[in-house]
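Support request from a user on the community tier.

User writes: "When I paste my structure tokens into the form, the page sometimes reloads and wipes my input. The last time it worked, I copied everything first. Here is what I submitted, just in case something in the input itself triggers the reload:"
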């Protein structure tokens, strides 16, 4: 049985937020101060998350990505990884992290069964890193990347939000970084998910501009043939074959027609789209005696209710009432 929506999209990829807490304060995601986090009792337990995954696997779930907030601030996360890795039918487990705690947890996570890492890093300059994150820690992130490579994680990808007036001078350094380290750098167009509601369309550094800048500044970027059609990033390699760059053009070139993802927030709300205004309360089913069949039906109903696209580029777009850190990256 497959999770197919009204537009024929098959959903096999689940993003699980394990916490809304974070140890940095990126301006495009969180307020700098006075953040109201969920009470810990509201968060799904590892056992509840594992049960949800077990119910979803017979419906076609194959891939998991753990997110936050910052997932590595959730204590003993390697135990959840091990539980999910033990579920027959799960083919891939990934993690999105800011990397601050990665060096100290990399070995345990790898031993538990995690293999894929996405590390959020918006600048290769300590001062600009601090400007964006409003916290220190650049060297910790670089050390986390080094340890992760030594441990054997593959692939490791960098997620870098591209913002006009801020990120232009980081494009070329990141291009060289990709060529020197073998780590794919993925640039993400600035999306309207900030807690302060300050997003403006003229701040979006477009995919076209990113590719043109790198092609002029280093050497031509060529599309990677036979790339995964469901991947959010369009992948490129430099003309000499050294260095991979991905561009996630959520604003200027939405990939909604190929979307295969759905999400569950740290407090157990099922969302069929990052920008959705509707949620299904799965936690209530998990904690109040709901049967597996009821949870499965809730998942199917959520997918069937998925809209055609997020409409960022239309006048009808309304920003979700949850910011990014509360939804899950």
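"...and here is what came back when it finally went through:"
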């Amino acid at each position: 049985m497959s999770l197919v929506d009204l537009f024929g999209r098959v959903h096999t990829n689940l993003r699980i937020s394990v916490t809304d807490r974070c140890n940095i304060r990126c301006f495009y995601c969180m307020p700098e101060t006075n953040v109201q986090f969920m009470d810990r009792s509201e968060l799904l337990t590892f056992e509840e998350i594992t049960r949800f995954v077990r119910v979803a696997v017979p419906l076609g779930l194959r891939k998991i990505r753990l997110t936050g907030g910052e997932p590595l601030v959730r204590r003993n996360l390697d135990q959840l990884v091990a539980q999910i890795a033990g579920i027959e039918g799960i083919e891939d487990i990934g993690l999105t992290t800011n990397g601050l705690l990665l060096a100290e947890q990399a070995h345990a996570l790898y031993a538990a069964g995690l293999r894929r890492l996405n590390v959020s890093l918006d600048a290769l300059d300590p001062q600009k890193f601090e400007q964006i994150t409003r916290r220190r820690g650049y060297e910790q992130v670089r050390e986390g990347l080094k340890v992760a490579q030594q441990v054997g994680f593959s692939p490791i990808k960098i997620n870098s939000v591209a913002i006009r007036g801020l990120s232009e001078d980081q494009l070329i350094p990141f291009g060289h970084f990709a060529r020197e380290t073998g780590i794919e750098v993925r640039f993400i167009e600035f999306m309207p998910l900030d807690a302060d509601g300050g997003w403006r369309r003229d701040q979006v550094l477009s995919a076209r501009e990113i590719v043109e800048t790198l092609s002029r500044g280093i050497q031509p970027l060529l599309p990677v043939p036979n790339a995964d059609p469901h991947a959010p990033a369009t992948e490129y390699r430099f003309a000499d074959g050294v260095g991979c760059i991905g561009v996630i053009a959520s604003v200027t070139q939405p990939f909604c027609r190929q979307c295969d993802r759905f999400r569950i927030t740290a407090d157990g709300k099922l969302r069929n789209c990052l920008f959705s205004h509707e949620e299904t309360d799965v936690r209530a089913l998990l904690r109040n005696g709901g049967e597996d069949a009821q949870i499965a039906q809730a998942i199917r109903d959520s997918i069937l209710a998925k809209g055609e696209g997020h409409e960022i580029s239309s006048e009808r777009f309304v920003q979700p009432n949850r910011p990014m850190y509360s939804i899950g990256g």
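Agent notes: The reload is a front-end session timeout and is unrelated to the input. The chain has a mean pLDDT of 93. The radius of gyration is 19 Å. Escalated to web team.
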